[in-house]
Amino acid sequence: MDLGLKGKKAIVCASSRGLGRGCAEALAEAGCDIVLNGRNEAVLAETRSAMQDRYGVSVLSVAADVSTEEGQNALLAACPDPDILINNNGGPPRRDYTELDRNALLEGAIQNFVTPIELIKAVAPAMQQRGFGRIVNITSLSVKMPIEGLDLSSGARAGLTAFLAGVCRQLAPSGVTINNLLPGKMDTDRLRGGFERAAQQSGTSLEEIRAQQAAEIPARRFGNAEEFGQACAFLCSRHAGYITGQNLLMDGGLYPAAF
């Protein structure tokens, strides 16, 4: 399927690895010029080189913390008028709510609530003027169901979802859409780190922990960055102009609900 994205420009936050990289790869495959972002310059350089070689599109990289004003300015300097913005950022580490002090709460809110809103405010007006824009926010399954130790991340991302529910309807008449992708258990470094902690705490092997958790998912497997990225690319495509304000859950059926 031709997604109608050839020549479009996309900023993909936190995209040197994992789900962000999956989104960047899928958009590059569809013909988009990409601005990558990450904090580890070596990993970012490897990702940039691999994508340029594979897809033949323009790939720039910005090593910066997207949660900071300086980081955002650097991204927007590299791509002042993106057609596509993929909001993604690391979340707060697993921690019981009793361990969260004021500074931790504010940092989590900045990472997963304030930052994506700031970037949307920066890019949406020009998208409206051009009559086309696609904004996709990578949030989490935890927006819909609790995950132990991720209360701060869940609260910030749920707040973002509610905030943008009104904003997306303001932008819709101009051909600009805002949607959210909610990953469940995806085969990423973060998930593997959780397996390692669980194995250490329980005295169970890593392979057993992995098998147990996969068995809890109706699809009987974990998701991967490639399929996640392809879903993101579709939401950015010309075929998805009538889809806005939606939360696409990618969890293999783990969340047990009809609606």
Note down, in words, how this protein is organized:
The chain is of the alpha/beta class. It folds into two domains: 9-185 and 223-250, 3-Layer(aba) Sandwich (Rossmann fold), CATH 3.40.50.720; 187-222. Helices cover 47% and strands 14% of the residues. The chain is built from eight helices and seven strands, in the order E-H-E-H-E-H-E-H-E-H-E-H-H-H-E. Strands 3-2-1-4-5-6-7 form a seven-stranded parallel beta sheet, with helices on both faces. The longest helix is centred in the middle third of the chain and has 29 residues, at 102-130. The radius of gyration is 18 Å and the shape is globular. The relative contact order is 0.15.
Query: What is the makeup of the main sheet?
Result: 7 strands, parallel
What is the CATH T-level topology of the largest domain?
Rossmann fold
Overall 3D shape: globular
What's the gyration radius in Å? 18 Å
Short description:
The chain has 259 residues and is α/β, with parallel strands linked by helices.
